Target: Thiamine-monophosphate kinase
Amino acid sequence: MPTSSTPAEKKITLASLGEFGLIASVTAGRTQPASTLLGPGDDAAVVAAPDGRVVACTDVLVEGVHFRMDWSTPEQVGRKAAAANLADVAAMGAVPTALLVGLACPADTDVELLQGLTDGLWAEAEAAGAGVVGGDVAASAQLVLSVTALGSLDGLDPVTRSGARPGDVLAVAGRLGWSAAGLAVLGRGFRSPVAVVGAHRVPEPPYAAGPQAARAGATAMIDVSDGLLADLGHVAVASGVVVDVRSAAFSVTGRLADVGQALGVDPLHWILTGGEDHALAAAFPGSVPEGWLVIGEVRAGAAAVLVDGRPYEGGPAGWEHFSR
Amino acid sequence: MPTSSTPAEKKITLASLGEFGLIASVTAGRTQPASTLLGPGDDAAVVAAPDGRVVACTDVLVEGVHFRMDWSTPEQVGRKAAAANLADVAAMGAVPTALLVGLACPADTDVELLQGLTDGLWAEAEAAGAGVVGGDVAASAQLVLSVTALGSLDGLDPVTRSGARPGDVLAVAGRLGWSAAGLAVLGRGFRSPVAVVGAHRVPEPPYAAGPQAARAGATAMIDVSDGLLADLGHVAVASGVVVDVRSAAFSVTGRLADVGQALGVDPLHWILTGGEDHALAAAFPGSVPEGWLVIGEVRAGAAAVLVDGRPYEGGPAGWEHFSR
Model:
């Protein structure tokens, strides 16, 4: 006798739970960090900004563009959305304090999915020392996540893109190319190696390296979200300098080398052009702090990014939305 | 001879201009307030938070749900999106300092529309004393605007929803019912009277009344976004009090009375249940500051909102997304 199937449980959707029900469900039982002076539940939150300044940035992620629900769990999507913003705060030399989340999604979205998303946002915020202090939800045709991150400079000057000077040493903290390798694997229908696929699903930005670089006197810094060369291009233009990357600086071994061999791709291409790992790239006037890898130098000249002294010929240098 | 028609000019879309082109186009030539220490163009902005705290909130607006591009100009949509957030900051007793904008829209969106949106965001931010300090744009199926507002309490305590006490006087600053009347007019295919239609397109929150109420010792405050009774319900629950509104407090005259008569609706219904005017409602322990209208009182008892001592029977008390 076949096992009798239980009647399909009716899923709880956003429409059935309602806006306020969802908000109650995803805010209950969370522990806010000390910097959250007033958390969710009022017209606005209040967050500590101890040195009288607050760092703030916003990133938008769209289902099908920035993530696929069949490639990632809701929690992974939440972590990734949070990481993209928290890394921007770190790239100014600041410590993340808070996230606010604008969510638009179809009314028939399963509340479990939204709880997973929120769990992911919380997990990544906590990893960076921040809390989720507010947000809003509305009905839309497609899932869109707009995350705002706040941070504290703790008395340091913000490290912008425009301060790199000829003679500075160029260095990175964090992984490069792993997310691009993971995306290539997923795009060919594979689900392993887990290490690179996981790197695409959930980046691991080196949050602490941002304030570390600021304390060490970094002259310019950026978070690698669109690809190393593309993002260094912003530093080159803003600072009016030549940024020259030395390809031999990257030792391509282990997983990245294996995946490259399996897919017939030179992993250096992923390292130079792959986005979404949210490594930090910075220029330093002298020695480089512990944990940072020297990858090149800053020279005088018309703004340009070079690899081993020449323009990189390996393909499009980065990812820009909407461009054809 | 008929005037020869010029060939249709090819519109510039987000896809043709690109993400960075759009950002350059909408940030050029703007004047930031003094509170913007570092404006758009880097990984994150830096905003002044003079008393060591920052007020922060996020609102999401979706085309077809919160606004219609055939009922409003892009600039009006931008103003409304900004106003909804800036009013939340004011409702804490704070002065708005900055907006960040997460925008998702179809790749074939006309850049003129996006410039109009941005002009509206800037106009409303400036009206409240704030600047637009950052944002992000991504491709999506539907236009979604997620706006985050920041503000400064300037040394005052935040005014929450939970401080109302029996004996407090209930008062409002700003208009009530005008946006609902305008929506009713538009919904029946009319475009006038301009005063109420305009109120639906662009609310006029009384930003300065927020800090004014905080200085006057307001015990609780909320921004009327979902309807007076619905929003007072949040105050009643958070404070554990009865909020009793006196209907005779509202003098229904002029435009609102005319429109009510023309459409066969009692304007009091719009005043009590209409959202989106972003008036401020507050409880005061004693006298009410200039410009505020006394509309009722706070009493001891199980949390409830009453009108003239009784539950309001005039229909659904407010607007909740997703509810059936």
Notes: Chain A touches chain B through 78 residues (CB under 8 Å).
